[in-house]
């Protein structure tokens, strides 16, 4: 008989723990400019954004981008984002919530679709790395779903985390999809890439602050 496993949170990074909306919308518009697409507002972004990302571009330009267009936009997006993310910080209260969850004897990890080699030093720079059992960024091509990455993430944590007592906290419908795929639950936060309206249809609790997200996770995983 193994030891009793505690509640576990898998945190999302961009738009959840990391408040990078301004850099994301700027990078998106910089990518659009390359193709002569008019810039969009944060509100438009939050109501239309989806993965896979080429599908998001299709919603805006009426067709899927070609492979060449996608590569161009993806490259511009990441260059712009890398320059502008330095002005972004953690979401209000995030560091305290991470410390509090850990000191309550629970575990947590971080799974992001941001490229792994960039993610790790960024998390380290904010002084929060020690709160996580694991920090995993994306390996492989960008623009896809988190689902397959979530499977690998939980496999890597196997033995210390029970999917049924695991809650994914993220800002995208895709976080709920990824959670369902491994038998975990999700709580969705409205402060990032999706509007409340576009999160409500997903079947997961929707909250406006990370503090509420943690309370909800505690309730679900208890």
Automatic annotation (TrEMBL):
Superkingdom assignment: Bacteria
Pfam families documented for this protein: Hydrolase
Any one cellular-component term (Gene Ontology): cytosol
Gene3D superfamilies assigned to the protein according to its UniProt record, in alphabetical order: HAD superfamily/HAD-like, Putative phosphatase, domain 2
MF-aspect GO terms: phosphoglycolate phosphatase activity
BP GO terms, sorted: DNA repair
InterPro entries per UniProt: HAD-like_hydrolase_sf, HAD-like_sf, HAD_sf, PGP-like_dom2
Record protein name field: Phosphatase
Annotated organism of origin: Streptomyces filipinensis
